């Protein structure tokens, strides 16, 4: 497998990460996961924009432009012959003695990208999933795709231990998002999701779903849902790069609506699939 390390392609066994890398010691960096369908990236522009923004928000100065990075990532999937899968990319503030303060300008950010396996969660997309509700204990800059994922990791694990596919996080009475996905509730034909502010990650899939809603006459309201309101939802679903659109049929031990995937969710799944194929055609 070829790995992109600071602009150079290396074999996996040639790459080693320094134990004083700030990503390793502080989680001091940001990342992206980009889906590859049929040999092409999906929503590369949006992922690259978010990556550049995340880096800027934590004051990491990237050594490559978005265009250069995109070119290198394209070469990466060609070299590795990735047909369907994903690419993980991360940048850290670099390697230096362990101190909280930023290092000087002589320390350069370390950027790594490599393919990771990824396939459609077909069963979940068909049947729907269960969520486990819990308090959102993360920091107040969830809009940054930070390497520091402890709050997310702990939530995902707790959800798993409670036989749920994903966590549903809430800050007090307000629902925010999943541990690695955005959440939506449907009520009387309107789709509700948390506004894209500092309390959630503005998912690339979320942006694509918002586009689909606009173009297809579906109403999407960026309004906070309340924990109390979950029991009155007709439908619910989550989205993410790797999940795409997955229906939610159960939250804790409560059925959502009729307890089966609803028509609005099904329509969005269909539109999303169509969009994947259309983007392929544009690129191809
Ligand atoms: N929220 C969180 C906390 C996430 O980790 C993810 C996955 N990256 C998402 C939302 C969904 O984002 P995207 O659609 O860009 O994968």
Automatic annotation (TrEMBL):
This is D-alanine aminotransferase. Acts on the D-isomers of alanine, leucine, aspartate, glutamate, aminobutyrate, norvaline and asparagine. The enzyme transfers an amino group from a substrate D-amino acid to the pyridoxal phosphate cofactor to form pyridoxamine and an alpha-keto acid in the first half-reaction. Gene3D superfamilies: 3.30.470.10, D-amino Acid Aminotransferase, subunit A, domain 2. Keywords: Aminotransferase, Pyridoxal phosphate, Transferase. GO terms for cellular component: cytosol. It holds the Pfam family Aminotran_4. The keyword Transferase applies. Homodimer. GO terms for molecular function: D-alanine-2-oxoglutarate aminotransferase activity; pyridoxal phosphate binding. It catalyses: D-alanine + 2-oxoglutarate = D-glutamate + pyruvate. It is an enzyme of class 2 (transferase). Its cofactor is pyridoxal 5'-phosphate. The gene is dat.
